Amino acid sequence: MLPHFAGKLAALVLPLTAVIVAFSGCLIMVAVARRKQREKYFEALDEARARYRPMITGLLAGQQEYQQVASALKGIVGPRRTVVLERLCLEKIPQPADLPILQRLCQDLGLVETWQRDLSSSLRAPARRPLRALLSSPGDFVERMERLSFLLRAKSAENLRLIRHGPSWPLLVKALEDPHPDVQAIAARALGAIGEPQSLPALVEQLHRVVLGPGLGLSVRSIKAALVSFPLQFAYHLQPSLKHPHPRIRFLATDIIREMADLEAAKSKDSALALDTFPAELGEIFLTRLPADTNPDVRARSAPVIANLRDPRTTPALLALLEDQQWFVRLHTVRALARPRYVPQAAPIARLMTDSNWRVREASAHALVCLGQFDLLMEHLIHSDDRYTREQIAEELERHGFMAIILAQYAAGAQARERSVVEQLARMGKTSYIIARLQNGAPPRLRERLAMDFGRHTDPGVRAWAEHIAQA
């Protein structure tokens, strides 16, 4: 029985070997053919770059006539014409000054029409069917291609974003409902780049949908990044979101407006927004409603926006937030007050130097430094009973270079306040900065004064430190 089976198996070896060799040969031929095809494509692309890219560069620099360049590019033909033109026109990220010319060029070359057509060809995701039915159906290849068609739609949306093509915003709004999340995200980013006000409500609607139905559609990050890209003057579209019953929607709307306001305030010399710049109805909401919101995250995010407003009610609202029960609300508020226009509020800020949370104490010290209130910081350093508060003040003074000034004034025989600061640092053991100054760039009389003032100190630790300095 065994020899008979072995004989049959031996008879099959040769045909199987021939099939395997033939199949391997076909794979090799396909790989070689594909490689040659790719080589021809890249050769053609390099040739097109060498021929046409200098013309496009000259056009953007104002050294070439538009009609001449457009006519030359229209002469490009072939099955990969669109891909070659995309590479030539959008090989580098366009600069804002180049956008009008590139928009016109892409329009005249038919690229915009192609991108719009490809983007609007959003195909429904194929229905799930049993594996046997899929394998036996002649449409399997088509369905697989449909699954990959999102790449073309995503690329089209990205190209429309790069050239900031405003008239395409309705198609991009529809693309927010695309079956594939990557296309949705790119469409949202494109809408933010274009900045068409009419598209903003659609993005806000998507924000509500994502929060109320987690796991559906776009991510919150994608929607938020798109909304923040819009100018502050269009933030009134978020007004219903600020009054929404869902606390997370109110928080996200507040945080989006905060980022919008920060970008707008950065353009102002005094980092403040006039109410005529900030939508009036939003200003009322931020000044009267949000500081008392039940969601502490909303209260925290509202503080920087309120601090940017130029309104008499701004200061009372911020002072109320400084007394909030939640530490992170106080933290965001004291950070928002760290700007020169709030110097008169230095005393309430200084009271947070004794806050129960160390991050609030640290932010308070930093805010006083930003306000130039070094005298107030020194008073707290001298008289505070909290070791952690004193350490945070000392770190802020060192970080901003003010400790060098204190040591210079102390060495020159200044008032007793500077001596008390040095004594407090010695008691705390925070003398590394002083020692470093003595080793490099110290005032001439600093070592002598330290030894004289603290050589007989009642604190043994301070006395030992002074003796060590004198002998060094």
Detailed description of the structure:
The structure is a single chain. The protein has 472 residues and is an all-alpha fold. Among the domains are: 30-109; 401-472, no CATH class. The protein contains 27 helices and 2 strands. The protein has helices at 2-60, 66-74, 81-89, 99-108, 111-120, 131-136, 140-148, 150-162, 169-175, 181-194, 200-212, 220-228, 239-242, 247-265, 280-289, 296-308, 314-322, 327-336, 346-351, 358-370, 374-383, 387-399, 402-411, 416-428, 432-439, 446-454, 460-471; strands at 273-274, 309-310.
Q: What Rg is obtained from the alpha carbons, in whole angstroms?
A: 35 Å
Q: Largest beta sheet: what is the strand line-up?
A: 1-2
Classification by helices and strands: mainly alpha
Q: Please provide the ordered H/E string of secondary-structure elements.
A: HHHHHHHHHHHHHHEHHEHHHHHHHHHHH
CA-based shape: elongated
Report low-confidence residues grouped into runs of 5 or more: 123-146
Q: Mean pLDDT score, rounded?
A: 84
What's the tally of helices? 27
Q: Indicate the proportion of strand residues.
A: under 5%
Termini distance?
101 Å
How would you characterize the largest beta sheet?
A: 2 strands, parallel
DSSP helix fraction = 55-70%
Quick one: how many beta strands?
2
